[in-house]
Amino acid sequence: MSAISNPMDHGHDHGHEPGLHHQYEDMAQQSETYIVGMWTFLVSEVMFFGALFLIYTLYRWNYQLDFYIAHEHLDVKLGAINTTVLLFSSFTMVMAVQSAQLKNRLKVMGYLAVTVLCACTFLVIKYFEYKSKFADHLYPGAGFADDAVKAFGNHALENGHVAVNMNHAQLFYGLYFGMTGLHALHIIVGIGVIISLIRLWFNRANTVIHDYVPTEMVGLYWHFVDLVWIFLFPLFYLMPLPR
Amino acid sequence: MANSAAHTHEHHIVPTFTYVKTLVALIALMILTVAVSYVQIPAIGPISGTVANQVVALAIALVKAFLVVTIFMGVKFGTKLIKLWAILGFIWVLLIFGILGDYTTRKYEMAPSWDSQSDSALPRVAPDEPKMPRTNDLNVKIRD
Questions:
Q1: Complete domains list, chain A, with CATH
Q2: CB–CB contact B48 A243 (8 Å)
Q3: ipTM of the complex
Q4: Across the interface, do B30 and A87 touch by the CB < 8 Å criterion?
Q5: Counting Cβ atoms within 10 Å, is residue A66 exposed (0-12), middle (13-18) or buried (19+)?
């Protein structure tokens, strides 16, 4: 922005690009720097979620049947709807970025608003999922086993005895709430970031109107959140029967 | 570097139809992965049916992830440096998963009496399992 407001900032002759900051040679170099910076952040996020997926893999490998019976209580239909909602929000996000490239301000704001709506829909569905788990006492903690046996029903019993190890079932729900909860936290952060972006576009801020890349960077974050869910959905909702 | 970047990155606007096609493919794959989860794939040689089902589910997830990264995140249209960064992220995940190798080389040990009594948040002692070493074995002086 300083490049526009104060031409004295840089002595060389490419001030004609209004979105160009003075430390960069040209727009291509600036865009590449921005996007590589964003990817560096995303790689750190990949490592963060990667460790959680590793924990999941290890316990799932050891306690296959207990995890399977615990997972039967998740609602595949709601999970599938949520996946669709997130995939669609990724599409509207990418359309917002394309509109930013075409400098169509109203379209950018429209697509971003739809993206926020999808994100809120996701959270509302997630709320109802969590609520039903809490109603059945399927969250880790003291007293889990008695209530969980009732919730699991006949699957948990074998000749009248409890066939599921409740510690392992608790572990499943610990991972479920931990991983989907952290994912939901990323959605909440995303909603905040996208609303700030809408505000910048609404105010015709120089940061966004001369250069589409800041909008693209918010898009990269949003697609990453979608990416995590693409793996969470089959791993938690669509477990194959151990046999 | 700036010149090479300029060729590939400047003013590349992806047509809307490409994005629509990607979205349709992603939703179709989502439906496919749900449908496959209801089918019990039979064992193939040494590979059990469970593993086969899981491999199919993860393969579909990987295709979906590939579509999101290449098209929605625009890595396909990005510079070489951006491609390198995106690939590095997934190499990191593979490195993290290398830790699993450690669990195959040693006995999987549970916390004391983890399995003996299912419903208690209090510390437990299992009757069958070896007791914790007595304090004297650890060369610790017992406080009065």
A1: 46-237 (1.20.120.80)
A2: yes
A3: 0.87
A4: yes
A5: buried
